[in-house]
TrEMBL record:
Residue span, BZIP domain: 474-537
Protein name in the entry: BZIP domain-containing protein
InterPro entries hit by this protein: bZIP (IPR004827), bZIP_Maf (IPR004826), bZIP_sf (IPR046347), NFE2-like (IPR047167), TF_DNA-bd_sf (IPR008917)
Record key words, sorted: Activator, Coiled coil, DNA-binding, Nucleus, Transcription, Transcription regulation
Annotated spans, Disordered: 404-431
GO terms under cellular component: nucleus
Ranges annotated as biased composition (Basic and acidic residues): 418-431
Transmembrane segments: none
Family: Belongs to the bZIP family. CNC subfamily.
Amino acid sequence: MMEIELPPAKQSQQDMDLIDILWKQDIDLGVGREVFDYSQRQKEYELEKQKKLEQEHQEQLLKEQEKALYAHLQLDEETGEFIPVQPVPMVAAAAVTQPVTSSLQSKPEVGQELYIDECMKILADTFQYEAPQMNFHQTAMAPNSPIDTSQNFLPTEQQPVPESWQNTTTNTENVQDMERAWEELLSIPELQCLGNQIESLIDLSLYPNQEAMSETSNYMFHNPLPNIEKPAEDTAPVFSSDFVDTFASNVPTVNTNSTFNVESFCDDIFTLIDPKVTNVPLTDNCGQSFTELLNEPVDITDLSLCKAFNGNSPTEFNDSDSGISINTSPCATSPGQSMGSSIYGDAHYSYSDSEMEDMDSTTETAENPKETFTVPFTEDAFYALSPIVPLDICFDLEAQTPSEKELPVKPGQSKTPFTKDKALSRQEARFSRDEQRARALKVPFSVDKIVNLPVDEFNALMSKHQFNEAQLALIRDIRRRGKNKVAAQNCRKRKMENIVELETDLDKLKYEKEKLLAEKGEYNSSLQLLKKQLGSLYMEVFSKLRDEDGNKYSPQEYSLQQTKDGNVFLVPKAKKIEIKKEQV
DNA sequence: CACTTGTGTCATTAT
DNA sequence: GAATAATGACACAAG
């Protein structure tokens, strides 16, 4: 086959003719004319280009879907794996779940900017639907407010309306969309706490207002919702924009271009929706005055505790070998649950102790450094713990100095080098875990007391209180674990002492043996000396013996023998043998 | 990355 | 026979 290189530019007529001729020669070889046709090749090139673009587009979509998936996942700090976020029970169980991708696809952004935009949009979306029940008026806005919403949002009537906002045809659709929006919003771990609180506040029909805005009007305003546009429909409530404006104004210096701090975002939301801050008469759809509602006690503890517990993400107090565990994270509870109810009151007993141990480890490792409840537990501290926790304790943690935030360090992130206190800290960690469990079940005395009290006093103490099964099981477990822990420590101590003792004995015995061996050597040498002396004495005595003729006795023929009575005889050696035989 | 050490916990046995 | 202590075995974290 001939090789033809097509120039990038259009061939000249001469070239084309040449190609034509050559092609006619090659036609038998099955080569198509289009091989030499530049325009044909250009078409192919464009087709390829289009395919590439399509492929890129598809890849982008895939990436976005992946991102949306990660929005539903939570990064396990310990393993680095993504684990599914615990689903937060929503308004209705039948809520339609829709992939977050739907809302993400239009804004391919990165990182938390996307995150917050997403949240904002969902928030605005949600409150838009909520709005018909709550009449908010733009006039509530302070005229001198430095926040110029018109700079950021067009007036409702002028706002261009994206198609996605022009729905809300039926109530059921609204409800479903709202539920979906909430679900999406609450699938963001950091905002799960927000979900409950806002939910509760919606129930109370408490919404921010002029004062709230004026209180926070010193905040610099950056539009955190560049992608949010307001619906222009007449039916569209005014509230959504108001709320979004207010909300936006209350988010201090949230710049979408900078790193977004979710914690502070959550805090700001709380500040925004805190009824104490937004203490202005409003009317709900029932016409009831908000001031009346505000007079009702609102358990701020839940807010603070929520924050505190949310710091752990899904923090769970699981315990008891008796198959009892509790899920006390108020943020994970159903929004339908009363906000004022105790955070421990709705404990769910669902995990066995082994499961709990697993989760305990995650709880321990996932302990947020900003966790609120890290006060060393004592009984006094327990009783001193007021049901009302000042908001700033929980919300001002961001402002705390590092030393103030000193907290149990994650086992994997231990800042301090290994010291002898390690055992102590581990013990403290265990105690604090049991303490958490005890507190979760409202056990009214300390773990220390449970473990260390003598039987009688312990029984007396137990009889003073009425405990449910879970509490009893937990107390039993705590006492058993504590006792066993001490027993194990003692056992190991004893074991070590025994080992030391045996080693000492061994050393002693070795010393004794050496001593005896030395003694034996001494005895042996003295024995040898005695033998030697005896030999020389024998020879001396034998040499002095004479027969009748005055001749010496031959030592080869005679020997001296001593009988039992002490007499010494000179015995001929042949005779000596006989004597020996007689003795035998 | 295998090994060691220290610790908590559980199951079982001893008291 | 229940309560408690003792102990072997195991898992886990950290060095």
